[in-house]
Amino acid sequence: MIDYAAIAEFYRPTGLRQWTQNLSTWLPEYIQEHIHGNFDDWQAVLDQLPTIDNCTLDLVNGAILQGSTDSAQLEASLRKLMPWRKGPWQFCDTHIDTEWHSDWKWARVAPHIDLHHKNVLDVGCGNGYYGMRMLGAGAKSVIGIDPNWLFLAQFKAFKHYAPDLPIWQLPIGLEAITDELAWFDTVFSMGVLYHRRSPIDHLTDLKRLLNKKGTLVLETMVIEGDENACLIPHDRYAQMRNVWFIPSVKMLEIFLKRVGFKHVRCVDLNQTSIEEQRKTDWMTYLSLEDFLDPNDHNKTIEGYPAPLRAVIIAEQ
């Protein structure tokens, strides 16, 4: 399930050596306690993926695999891992049109960061789409963490065809990393903060994983307003129960400075459209259009401001 040996070998000469060596000690027990009941079925899908001959990889222009294969079998297998939410992915002739146009978000983030030769931690990495794009942008290595087991299966489907890529995904949440690692050059937290009951604690946890010259890339929902403005939904926000705290950009900048970040700046602000997040043939459940006021897409169905997303860059 997790290639502990490959992770330990890659990071052996680095400051992450001890932590990656220890993974094989504690992570199997953690997995045993938290594994999803369907993962054996998803693993069976992965074990039966068809061969791709003359396989080539393009991570600069997307998450793209090219080569010759049994396209019908490949698509049938990948459909058993639905719903696909982050992407798009290209497996030869099979284009996975995901719920999110994550490539649009990446296009808004990428111009503001330099990932060349950087070691990256992606917190709440989803199915690894952004991690693949980070490698395409020059990252030396990527570790993604996300407790969602279907996302792990989707990640493994792509890496099945590119096993030597220096990217690994661990089925854990940030709370499972109890060490003060202070090692990563760049830490991403994209679409996570508003799901945390304590945003200050989340930012503090992210900071302790960065080295002394490290950079945080924070992408999250915000609301308009001054440094005193925030939204705490009474119950659901856009039908999500696990949205706790949506600050203004100014308030979020204060949070980051209070926990010790410097050079804090908002580099992008964008209201999510129903073209960027929508149901597709690969994600057939309800999506953003169903969660907005049908008469006014500037409001959620509950009457709150529609999702406005900011990209914040901050440094140690």
From TrEMBL:
EC number(s) stated in the UniProt entry for this protein = 2.5.1.-
One Pfam assignment: Methyltransf_9
InterPro entries per UniProt = CmoB, Mo5U34_MeTrfas-like, SAM-dependent_MTases_sf
Residue ranges that the Swiss-Prot or TrEMBL entry lists as coiled coil = none
Q: Name one GO biological process term.
A: methylation
GO molecular function term, any single one? methyltransferase activity
Family statement drawn from the similarity comment of this UniProt entry: Belongs to the class I-like SAM-binding methyltransferase superfamily. CmoB family.
What role is this protein assigned?
Catalyzes carboxymethyl transfer from carboxy-S-adenosyl-L-methionine (Cx-SAM) to 5-hydroxyuridine (ho5U) to form 5-carboxymethoxyuridine (cmo5U) at position 34 in tRNAs.
Description of how the protein assembles with itself and partners = Homotetramer.
Q: How is this protein named in the record?
A: tRNA U34 carboxymethyltransferase
Species whose genome carries this gene:
Wohlfahrtiimonas chitiniclastica SH04
